[in-house]
Amino acid sequence: MSQAILKNTISPHKDNYADYSIIELIVEMDLLGVSPQPLLEIAAKDIMNRYGADGHIYVEMMLNQVTEAQDLGGIFLWTELQKILNTPSFSPHTTIH
């Protein structure tokens, strides 16, 4: 099976995958038809585990900061995290089978 070549729309293609930011990786996943939702859900759970009930406040604060900075990638990321945290079925606890 050949490896997919990423077509980065944010910046020129990088030779090393480690050079991609999380936002660039999420965009690439979406472009390749791979849902970034599980990765975003892990990030949301990590935020809630770290900040507890203040996790919602933290995400809102970060969203405000990236909005002021007009950081489109950041706006996308923090908006998606906010949506996940506001989903009624979201649980910060991980179930291991």
Oligomer: single chain
Instruction: Decide which structural class fits the backbone.
Output: mainly alpha
Could you name the ranges where pLDDT drops below 50 across 5 or more consecutive residues?
1-10
N→C terminal distance: 30 Å
- SS summary, helix count: 4
Task: Let me know the largest β-sheet.
Answer: none
- Form type: globular
- Radius of gyration equals 15 Å
Strand composition percent: under 5%
Mean pLDDT: 81
Quantity of strands, as a count: 0
Give helix % range.
40-55%
How are helices and strands ordered from N to C?
HHHH
Quick rundown:
The chain is mainly α and 97 residues long.
Describe the structure.
With 97 residues, this protein is mainly alpha-helical. Helix content is 55%, strand content 0%. The protein contains four helices and no strands. The protein is globular.
List key phrases describing it.
55% helix; single chain; 97 residues; mainly alpha
Secondary structure: elements and pairs:
Blueprint: H1 22-31, H2 37-51, H3 55-68, H4 72-85
Helix pairs in contact: 2-3, 2-4, 3-4
